[in-house]
Design goal:
CATH topology of the largest domain: Multidrug-efflux Transporter 1 Regulator Bmrr, Chain A
CATH architecture of the largest domain: Alpha-Beta Barrel
Strand order of the largest sheet: 1-6-8-7-3-4-2-5
Radius of gyration: 22 Å
Number of helices: 11
Number of domains: 2
Structural class: alpha+beta
Number of strands: 8
Strand content: 15-25%
Largest sheet: 8 strands, antiparallel
CATH superfamily of the largest domain: Regulatory factor, effector binding domain
Distance between the termini: 16 Å
């Protein structure tokens, strides 16, 4: 099964079971993917989490049923997975901007989220510069935080983590310690097989370092693997976010390589990250 087809199969599974207690493990299984990498890929491609997609689709269908039938709001609440009519009304109003009762009276406009269709985009006008390389294991030193990736804690926590590191001088220290082959400060995302059970992932802000390690820093061994390394040009954070989306929507679907499930690296130079020509890199382990 192709990469795009596997994602589409998972979306089809969600649509067919929207009114059931959906398991992220089963959804990822439909895509023949690990839980972590399916969630990450889905979020990059759609700019929303799986939970957001399911919630928006349920409330879209609930609104259609509300205005086209005489079903009671309390029955609609339970049908679409809410414990109380109050919880349903709160979620409904947040998405649609009106209460269920107003919607039934045709007061205000409803917001519809349609079923997703993943499409491959091949844009020759926006070439991607990359290289494939084999690299032996290497050591990074730095600090780490653990986040819950299933509830989206990482999406808000990681930018705050970087703010702290930039403010307290840790990034300056890491640049000084950088004496390995990869030049710069790294953002390293690590999620192992335990992610499917506890949803936890480690995020490191670190650097490639050989030699003695300061007492206040931790070390991690990055295993030997094959990497695809993408060049990223432009100011942060937009350039990095756009590059990730292009990688998953264009590069992977049109290449025979697959994500190997190892750590992902973002490599940042010491230059001004707001410059239009700022250079950074994305490293992904492949097979």
């Amino acid at each position: 099964m192709g990469w795009v087809e596997s994602i589409q199969k998972a979306i089809h599974y969600m649509e067919e079971h929207l009114l059931e207690d959906l398991s992220i493990e089963q959804i990822a299984k439909e895509a023949n993917s690990s839980v972590f990498h399916f969630q990450r890929t889905f979020a990059i491609l759609t700019d929303m989490s799986i939970a957001d997609y399911i919630r928006r689709r349920r409330l879209t269908l609930a609104a259609q049923e509300l205005i086209n039938t005489t079903i009671k709001v309390i029955d609609l609440s339970f049908k679409y997975g809410y414990d109380t009519p109050e919880a349903f009304t709160k979620a409904f109003r947040k998405q649609h901007g009106v209460t269920p009762s107003d919607a039934r009276k045709k007061i205000g406009n409803l917001q519809s989220y349609n079923r997703l269709v993943i499409q491959v985009n091949l844009k020759g006008a926006e070439p991607m510069k990359y290289k494939i390389l084999e690299k032996e294991s290497f050591q990074v030193v730095g600090i780490k935080r653990t986040y819950n990736g299933k509830n989206g804690e990482n999406t808000t926590g990681i930018p705050l983590f970087w703010d702290e590191v930039n403010a307290d001088g840790t990034d300056d220290l890491l640049f000084q310690l950088n004496n390995g082959e990869i030049k710069g400060v790294l953002g390293v995302c690590v999620a192992d097989e335990s992610f499917k059970d506890n949803g936890l992932l480690d995020y490191w802000i670190a650097t490639d370092h050989k030699g003695e390690v300061p007492e206040n820093l931790l070390t991690m061994e990055i295993p030997a693997t094959k990497w695809v390394v993408f060049e990223v040009h432009g100011p942060m954070p937009d350039a990095m976010q756009n590059a990730w989306k292009q990688i998953f929507s264009e590069w992977f679907p049109s290449n025979s390589y697959e994500h190997a499930g190892g750590p992902e690296l973002e490599v940042y130079s010491s230059e001004d990250a707001s410059n239009a020509d700022y250079y950074s890199e994305i490293w992904i382990s492949i097979k």
